Amino acid sequence: xxxxxxxxxxxxxxxxxxxxxxxxxxxxxxxxxxxxxxxxxxxxxxxxxxxxxxxxxxxxxxxxxxxxxxxxxxxxxxxxxxxxxxxxxxxxxxxxxxxxxxxxxxx
Length: 107
What we know:
This protein is of the alpha+beta class. Helices cover about 50% and strands about 20% of the residues.
């Protein structure tokens, strides 16, 4: 393969990759709307539900120290902030990730 053929192949590859990226984005958008994993042929678009991440430590720090001690291990001090929050009936803040889609070729 000479330099000209190599350059043509590299440009062709770049165009094909751009087209594949556009197709992947279209597939991801469609699967997000459907809200379920889709498999067609050897292409699988996996849907991921949004997830919440709770911040028990921030909410639990408002508890009385006696409650915090109640849920602290003795050997290696570690506080179970979730139990602290349950004890004081705290309104626990959380972050929620958005739903996502991963598109892969499967064998």
